[in-house]
Amino acid sequence: MDLVGGCKAFVAVSEAGSFTRGAALARIPQSVASRRISALERHLGERLFDRSSRRAVLTPFGRDMLPSAQRLVRLADAIEQDAQRAKSRPLRIAVPETCTTRDLAELDSEARAHDLFLEFHPATPGERAELVRTHDVRAAITAVPADAGTWTVPLGLAGTAAMPPRAVHLEALRVGRSRRVPRRRIWIQPEDDVPHIRDRLMRVRDAVGLHPAQVAVAESLTAAIADVLGSADLLVCSAAQARELDMAWRSIGEVRLERGFGIAAAVTDDAERIRSRLFNAVARSLGVTVDRQEAE
């Protein structure tokens, strides 16, 4: 039987002195209150109320049982409140620094519709993995090779200077022997300072004969953007990031680069909840074209 429900009806009726008023106090129909109390009496093996009176008068057994029932009702209420607080406790998640405030606000808004309350911790790829390992966050959007990613984001080159009509070929950035033209550099932001992106780009750099300094890792995204804004340099980024920065964006002619993202969590259920309930919202925050991602 529903012991808690029976005790709640029992306590409410005893406090109100009436089955009608007690049912209203418990916010249940009178017939339900009567059934629950009758079931409780059968479970306990004794009458709780004297049915010969027009009022809800406790029997001696009922008076003896009332304090225990009240304690159980208080404990049940406390458990429900604790459960609500636990569900409302923010799930701290490490996210890429490339996610904008608007991106994260929209992700948080959608998460709340699924009773998930997120607290964001922007960090670099290496930091995100470490934060999960040390349990400083409950989950992280991790950087992984594209073929292992739950989400993937194509990368290209963005800049403020004139761009070719289609792809940018790195070999076109070579400087002649006169060296009168400044070398155009390609900046890798911290989010892409991972082997499956950085090393592939460096190999293309060497293969087409660029100077080693022409492809470099920036100390921060802000520093990389500053260099690009003040020159003909280029930034490795997604198309969504280029739009946010008001830069022209082109794919890279010699190589296809993609960011891959997965979910890591200290508790498997946390990762699964984010993946299953917030797939599209996370995708948008990362700059993924959702329709394309789902089609793949």
UniProtKB/TrEMBL annotation:
<dbReference type="InterPro" id="IPR000847">
    <property type="entry name" value="LysR_HTH_N"/>
</dbReference>
<dbReference type="InterPro" id="IPR036390">
    <property type="entry name" value="WH_DNA-bd_sf"/>
</dbReference>
<comment type="similarity">
    <text>Belongs to the LysR transcriptional regulatory family.</text>
</comment>
<dbReference type="InterPro" id="IPR036388">
    <property type="entry name" value="WH-like_DNA-bd_sf"/>
</dbReference>
<feature type="domain" description="HTH lysR-type">
    <location>
        <begin position="1"/>
        <end position="59"/>
    </location>
</feature>
<keyword id="KW-0238">DNA-binding</keyword>
<dbReference type="GO" id="GO:0003700">
    <property type="term" value="F:DNA-binding transcription factor activity"/>
</dbReference>
<keyword id="KW-0804">Transcription</keyword>
<keyword id="KW-0805">Transcription regulation</keyword>
<protein>
    <submittedName>
        <fullName>DNA-binding transcriptional LysR family regulator</fullName>
    </submittedName>
</protein>
<dbReference type="Pfam" id="PF00126">
    <property type="entry name" value="HTH_1"/>
</dbReference>
<dbReference type="GO" id="GO:0000976">
    <property type="term" value="F:transcription cis-regulatory region binding"/>
</dbReference>
